[in-house]
Design brief:
The protein is α+β, with helices and mostly antiparallel strands. The protein has 15 helices and 4 strands. Strands 1, 2, 3 and 4 form a 4-stranded antiparallel beta sheet that branches. It is 75% helix and 9% strand. The chain has helices at 2-43, 53-70, 75-104, 109-122, 125-143, 146-167, 174-182, 188-227, 233-251, 287-297, 300-329, 333-336, 338-346, 353-376, 398-421; strands at 255-268, 271-285, 386-390, 395-396. The protein has one domain (2-52, 175-421).
C-alpha cells in the first residue's frame, strides 16, 4: 500500500513538473508568436496600402504607363487622333491671338505701335493655321516613336512624384524597413511568407502543448478523486496545478482581434486596382497586458476597469488558492476563520473568473458582428467596388483555454474539498 502511495505521489509530481515545463514553453512561444503577429499586421496595415496616397500614386502611375505603352496609332484611329490634335492646335493659335491683341492695347502710344508692328511680323494666325495639318502629321509620327513614349511616361511619373511630395511629404517606411531587416527579407511579400510560416508553426506547437496540459489536468483530477482520503498531497498537487493554469491563463494572449479588408478592387481605365490583406485593427493581448494598458492610460474610468479586472481575474483567484493551501495545512482554520471558510468553500458562486471568461467570449462574438456590419457599409448600389472583409484572424487564443481550465479545475477542487470536510 505504501509503495502504491509513493508511486501515485511520484506520478503527481511528474504530471505537475511536465505541466510546468509545458506552461513555460507556451508562455515563451506565445510571446514570440505575439511579436510575429504584430509585425505581420504592421506589414499589411491599411496605412501602407488603401490609406496611403503614395501607394495610390504607384498604382495609377502603372496604369497610365500601361495605357501609354498600349497606345498605338492605326488606320482606324488615325483620323480621330488627327482631328483632336488639329482642334487643339487651332484653339491654341486662337488663344495666342487673343492674348497678343490684348497686349497691343497696353502701354503708351509708342509701345502700342511697336508691339503692333512686332506682333504682326512675328505672328500671323492665318499662316500658322495653314501649317497645322503638316505639324499634325509630324506629331503623329513622333507619337509612334518608342523613345517619345518613354519620355512621356517618365515625365508623368516625375510630375506625380513631385505632386505627392508637395502635398503629402515623403513616404515614411521606417517600420517596414525595420521588419525586413529583422527577418532578413528581400521585400514585403518575402516577409509575409516568412512570418506566416513562423506563426503557423508556433501556433501548432502551442495548441499541442495546451492540449497536453488539459489532459494532465484531467488525469490529475481523476487521481485526486481516487486517493483523496489518503492524505493532502493530492490536493496540494491539484492546488499547484491550478496555480500553473492560472499563470498560463493570465500571461498568454487571451484573444487576437483582427479586422481586415481581405480584398477591395475596382476598375480604373479598364484596369483593376486592388488592395488585398488590408489590416484595419489588430491586437493580441493577455489579461496582464490589458490590465497594464488600462492602468497606464491615466483616465479614471479606464483605471477603474483595470483595477476591477485585476481584482477579479488576478487577485481573487490567488487569494482563493492561498486560502485553500492554508486550509489544507490547517483544517481547523476553516471553522475558526470566516475569511478562509468563505474563500475555500463559498467563493465559487461569487467568483468572477468564469463570468470574465464568458465576457471575453461574448466580446469575441460581438466584435465579429460589429466588423461585418461596419465594413459592409462601405459597399452600396452607387459604388462599383468589390469588397471582401474577413476576421479570420480574430480568434480565442491559448490564454482563454488555460484560464477556462483553471476556472473549471478550481471549482472541481472546491467541490472535492467541501465533500472531504463534511
Amino acid at each position: 500500500m505504501k509503495t502504491q502511495q509513493i508511486l501515485i505521489n511520484f506520478l503527481f509530481l511528474l504530471l505537475l513538473g511536465f505541466s510546468c515545463f509545458l506552461t513555460v514553453q507556451i508562455y515563451q512561444q506565445s510571446r514570440i508568436n505575439q511579436t510575429f503577429k504584430i509585425d505581420y499586421a504592421e506589414l499589411n496595415n491599411v496605412k501602407y496600402g488603401l490609406l496611403n496616397a503614395h501607394e495610390w500614386k504607384r498604382k495609377v502611375s502603372n496604369i497610365i504607363a500601361l495605357k501609354i505603352e498600349e497606345f498605338d496609332i492605326t488606320e482606324g484611329n488615325r483620323g480621330a487622333i488627327r482631328q483632336h490634335i488639329q482642334r487643339a492646335m487651332y484653339r491654341l493659335i486662337d488663344e495666342v491671338e487673343i492674348f497678343l491683341n490684348q497686349e497691343k492695347k497696353q502701354g503708351n502710344w509708342f509701345s502700342r505701335g511697336l508691339k503692333s508692328v512686332a506682333y504682326g511680323v512675328a505672328f500671323d494666325p492665318q499662316k500658322f493655321k495653314q501649317q497645322v495639318p503638316a505639324w499634325t502629321e509630324e506629331i503623329l509620327v513622333d507619337l509612334d516613336n518608342p523613345a517619345t513614349r518613354q519620355q512621356l511616361k517618365d515625365f508623368l511619373q516625375q510630375k506625380m512624384t513631385e505632386l505627392m511630395e508637395e502635398k503629402m511629404g515623403k513616404e515614411n517606411l521606417t517600420a517596414i524597413h525595420s521588419i525586413r531587416q529583422r527577418y532578413s527579407c528581400k521585400g514585403n511579400a518575402d516577409c509575409r511568407a516568412t512570418l506566416n510560416k513562423k506563426i503557423t508553426a508556433n501556433a501548432d506547437q502551442i495548441f499541442d502543448a495546451s492540449l497536453l496540459i488539459i489532459a494532465c489536468a484531467c488525469l490529475l483530477f481523476l487521481l485526486t478523486t481516487y486517493v483523496q482520503k489518503q492524505g493532502n498531497f493530492a490536493f496540494f498537487s491539484l492546488l499547484a496545478f491550478c496555480l500553473v493554469l492560472l499563470f498560463g491563463g493570465l500571461t498568454t494572449p487571451m484573444i487576437d482581434i483582427d479586422a481586415r479588408i481581405q480584398e477591395l478592387s475596382f476598375l480604373l481605365m479598364g484596369e483593376e486596382v486592388a488592395f488585398r490583406e488590408q489590416v484595419l485593427f489588430f491586437q493580441s493581448k493577455s489579461i496582464t497586458d490589458v490590465v497594464e494598458i488600462l492602468l497606464r492610460h491615466g483616465d479614471f474610468q479606464t483605471i477603474l476597469v483595470g483595477v476591477l479586472i485585476a481584482l477579479f481575474s488576478i487577485l481573487f483567484p490567488l487569494l482563493k488558492l492561498l486560502s485553500t493551501g492554508f486550509a489544507l495545512s490547517k483544517p481547523t482554520s476553516i471553522e475558526r476563520n470566516k475569511f478562509i471558510r468563505f474563500m475555500v468553500l463559498k467563493s465559487g458562486k461569487w467568483s468572477m473568473a468564469d463570468v470574465f471568461v464568458v465576457a471575453i467570449f461574448m466580446a469575441y462574438i460581438g466584435f465579429k458582428g460589429i466588423i461585418d456590419s461596419q465594413l459592409n457599409q462601405m459597399t452600396g448600389d452607387h459604388i462599383t467596388v468589390d469588397l471582401i472583409t474577413t476576421h479570420e484572424g480574430t480568434a480565442l487564443q491559448v490564454g482563454f483555454l488555460l484560464f477556462t481550465g483553471y476556472c473549471l479545475l478550481s471549482l472541481a477542487m472546491s467541490a472535492l474539498l467541501e465533500d472531504r470536510l463534511k
